[in-house]
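Quick start: what a row looks like.
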Amino acid sequence: MSNIVLNTDLPIGQKLGTGKVRDLYELDGDLLLVTSDRISAFDVVMAEGIPGKGEVLTSVSCFWFDYLADIIPNHLISADLSSMPDIPGEHLAMLQGRSMRCHKAEPMPVEWVVRGYLTGSGWKDYQRDGAVSGVELPSGLQHASKFDEPILTPSNKAETGHDEPISYAQVEDLVGKELAAQGRDAALALYAKGRDYAAERGIVIADTKFEFGMLNGKMILIDECLTPDSSRFWPAEEVRPGGTPTSFDKQVLRNYLADQDWNREPPAPALPDEVVAKTAQTYQDIRSKLLS
């Protein structure tokens, strides 16, 4: 695998930073988000990449940014880099398909997690407390039970380490009541419209996260949107209370790592070719189902 899809350290503009998956550059006041093929699990980046993953995440995000733009503006300017003279031609072939030129917004210190079904860490919380991130839920729910209405369970944006769940009151303390309400309403509306679209294609969006930023005094949607990295997708025919639906995301990777003698601290165990290939196919499958 070409190292360039794992580390896009390129002489284009000014490199601002490297995240778990994306590398960020500044170009003439805009941002260039380059989505690598890196993959993380349990907040640890694997040494191996997932072929094609960056292109899947970029194309899926671009679709949703367009489809959901009537709910809230987003940061996407263009994903067609060929007409941008400030991107050197020798890098276009590698960057095209995995990059988005975006408005430079000020990120808000909150991840807006929306849950439509009881699963993941929410299921563990519910079994222990009868609530998810402080949101009280009816008794008797099972794994993969659908909520009567989706719930918002925000988390903070940790500079290092793991993001931590926070209450809505804490969100208000962080960003103010007006922006908290705006973010809550936008996140729930984005989820609802995305959920309905996916349902028409036989896909359940069990949960997802959104990130917002401020641009010229207005809130906009940033980062990625309803991708396999930020969302949990299930085949609709497998979803029933008490069931364990197949996940169209990195669950294959998580399952493999869960069986290893690993303390979830770097470095991660080496990934067998079979796990890499199955994970890559899962990403391709969900893109095909969503964008067909």
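That is the whole record. The chain has two domains: 3-104, 107-255. Residues 15 and 27 are 9 Å apart (CA to CA).
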